[in-house]
Amino acid sequence: MEFILYLAIIIGSTKAAGALSVRLGQPAVLGKLLAGIIIGPAILGWVKPDDFIGHFSEIGVLLLMFIAGLETDLEQLRRNWKPSFAVAIGGIILPFIGGYGAAAVFGLSNHEALFLGLLLCATSVSISVQTLKEMNKLQSREGTTILGAAVVDDVLVVILLAVMMSFLLPASDVSMGLLIGKKLLFFLVIGLAGWLLVPRFLKWLAPLRVTETVMSAGLIVCFAFSYFADKMGIAGIIGAFAAGIAVSQTSYRHQVESKIEPIAYTLFVPVFFVSIGLHITFEGVGKQLLFILLITLVAVLTKQIGGGLGARLTGFNNRSSIAIGAGMVSRGEVALIIAASGLESGLLPEKYFTSVVLVIILTTLITPPLLKQVFREQQTSQ
């Protein structure tokens, strides 16, 4: 029954920390992330990462991105595809160069430096989504561009990771044609399913005489799309986001959203926020403090500048470009997954693993206050 106690601690601590964060003028999500560090192994040790936390956390981030898809203006997403691509490309090139250069400074091998550069290319906007939602900016042109850029970034980074491993690991048997074909197949199938099947599926389930059929249909679509994305080598959050967009095009959009949000934000999303902090330990950090500080600085500045430059070149003004760059800074769970694969394959040295995880967590913690400050300055200047 230990997991029941975990849930009580997580829900209570995230609500209290989120409220305190708002009182201090910061987004509630910052407090929730810090709650994970405080109640986790790093400080109090009340909650420890395990399979239960991992599964609940995964459901939490999928629901968070599903809700983001439900709230996305598809027409605006279509209009902003060029800025989204430019932001994603800028947010890959500069972090890769910066990460490679910083790794070389610390004496990592060429293979290890290439991997660290690629790891810094990752973007996870689940934290940005929550922050933008709190500020009512998720449906803004900047918010839509950030979401679109994150999708492009995820696909490109996954492909680049597979290409890199095929060259750097002797036993790798990655087929580039198969890899890219699976990505194209994913978007083709998801596009057709969202257009032809999802509306009919919701319409078929809605009249059934059992409780909460519409919400259940929405969850089925969300989890099915996420599973398919994972099988095609794309992060499940992209599938959940696509599912949200598909459901948003039906007449059941508001009904699904109003039912899903209470469940997501009461139970699953708090576990996701806390789970990020649970990865932190301060063991041996003192010896690698310079490494952590420099890589964090490189990670933040290269995403901010690269993403912002892509936005500026496609018509956004300076303030909006800075805001878009800030929204791409968080590496979150996507980079944690890449770091784990690097450790397993030997491309990320074991002695640097904890430090790299700390860098990922720091970029995630920096993003909410950074976004809030940038948007506040943008509103002041208008």
Description of the structure:
52% of the residues are buried. By secondary structure, the protein is mostly helical. The longest helix is centred in the C-terminal third of the chain and has 32 residues. The N and C termini lie far apart (54 Å). The model has no long low-confidence stretch (mean pLDDT 87). It has 16 helices and no strands.
Itemize the secondary structure elements and their pairings.
Blueprint: H1 2-23, H2 28-39, H3 51-70, H4 74-79, H5 81-105, H6 110-119, H7 126-134, H8 141-168, H9 176-205, H10 213-231, H11 236-248, H12 253-278, H13 289-313, H14 318-327, H15 332-345, H16 350-381
Helix pairs in contact: 1-2, 1-12, 2-12, 2-16, 3-7, 3-11, 3-12, 5-6, 5-8, 5-13, 6-8, 7-16, 8-9, 8-14, 9-10, 9-11, 10-11, 10-12, 13-14, 13-16, 14-16, 15-16
Task: Using the alpha-carbon principal axes, give the shape.
Answer: globular
Oligomerization state of this entry?
A: single chain
The number of distinct β-strands equals: 0
Q: Determine the number of helices (DSSP H or I, runs of at least 4 residues).
A: 16
Q: Could you list some keywords that capture this structure?
A:
382 residues; 16 helices; 79% helix; globular
Q: TL;DR of this structure?
A:
By secondary structure, this protein is mainly α.
